[in-house]
Design brief:
Keywords: Oxidoreductase. With 116 residues, the chain is an alpha/beta fold. The chain has 3 helices and 3 strands.
């Protein structure tokens, strides 16, 4: 990608990679690492003038894949359990638009804005 100055790196993290969650310290730490990795790669590409190498970091809430069976959501209208096909479609759209970060559901943008 660097040699051809073309490509797109997609890091699948989690919304837990942007905020610490009670009883999920190990999970959050691994997702913080994925977010930091993507940010670092993006910064390195800019510093090297490799504007054709893009990054997108995906930070979804729970996805209905079986990994989180038994988990619920306190506010299903604001933080629904996500359908895998919906998430895949949104990731492809984010890649096509060169979006640096994708938060799912969209309500997460509001919550993370409040955090800052």
């Amino acid at each position: 990608m660097i040699a051809s100055n073309h490509g797109h790196l997609v890091s699948i993290a989690s919304s837990a990679g942007l905020i610490g969650v009670n009883r999920l310290a190990d999970y959050c730490a691994s997702k913080f690492a994925a977010v930091g990795f993507a940010e670092s790669i993006s910064s390195e590409m800019r510093a090297q003038g490799k504007t054709g190498v893009k990054t997108t970091t995906v930070c979804p809430y729970f996805i209905n894949t079986g990994m989180f069976d038994g988990c619920g959501t306190k506010w299903p209208l604001l933080l629904p359990i996500l359908d895998p096909e919906y998430v895949a479609e949104k990731i492809m759209t984010a890649i096509r638009r060169d979006e640096p970060i994708l938060l799912l559901p969209r309500s997460l943008y509001f919550f993370f804005a409040l955090k800052k």
